[in-house]
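Researcher: I'd like a structural prediction for the single chain below. Treat it as a standalone chain; there are no partners to consider.
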Amino acid sequence: MDIFHISLQALLGQMTLGLVNGSFYAILSLGLAVIFGMLNIINFTHGAQYMLGAYFAWLGMTHLGISYWVALLLCPILVGAAGMAVERLLLRHLYKLDHLYGLLLTFGLCLIVEGLFVEWFGVSGQQYPVPESLRGVLELGFLTLPVYRAWVVACSVTVCLLSWFAIEKTRLGGYLRAATEKPEQTQSFGINVPLLVTLTYGFGVALAAFAGVLAAPVIQNTPLMGANMIIVVFAVVVIGGMGSILGAIVTGLGLGLIEGLTKVVYPEFSSNIVFLVMALVLLVRPSGLFGKEKS
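Model: Treating it as a single chain, here is the predicted structure.
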């Protein structure tokens, strides 16, 4: 009975950790899905933008005394604004070309940003403290849950659901979808389509930075933290369906749980389980779980 109790504790602990990771996957894949679904750009800079959110939070705390709560609001705005500048100056010229050109451009930007931060800060990493108001643990009887991990999950799910609602159920979201599917007709109704496209890219980038600030207190912040995350996130997007908002959210959270469970059952395979799931899903449904089948 004692062995079973220890196993249950390990299972719940790893699944909780998996849900935290899944929360990061969900926000990051949501940002990727928004950008691809609306702009048809495979944004390989997403990992670097995730890293920028974490590093801007750390720099703001270290050099300017900016609190975690201010950083959680300010850093996504700053990184999103930088993303909008990239869209206006560079990406806008690639929309009518093959997806490969956008991927190569964003991959090159990713390497530049990561290289600069390695040069400036090295690869040892920086530690961001958990904010004082979110320290401590929640005693649930069957599980001891750190308050910050509970906050990450709750905040991530809230942001993801609000983003889904804004895109799928509001007038602004309707304008965005119309601008993507029929830009000329949408422009003829007096809607500023180029501005909508820029704001959409900025929003997707801001989501990546938001995830970076959330992750800063629970991981080692290094210039290559995005490179380690982005491959898994791309797999999440493919499994959910390229461009599917709901697919990105559900798949991100679900795969986080599956990854956590695998760490208990078969730890050696936990880093590969996402790619196994991707292979199986693509064999059965090439468009992804929530993607639209091509007619």
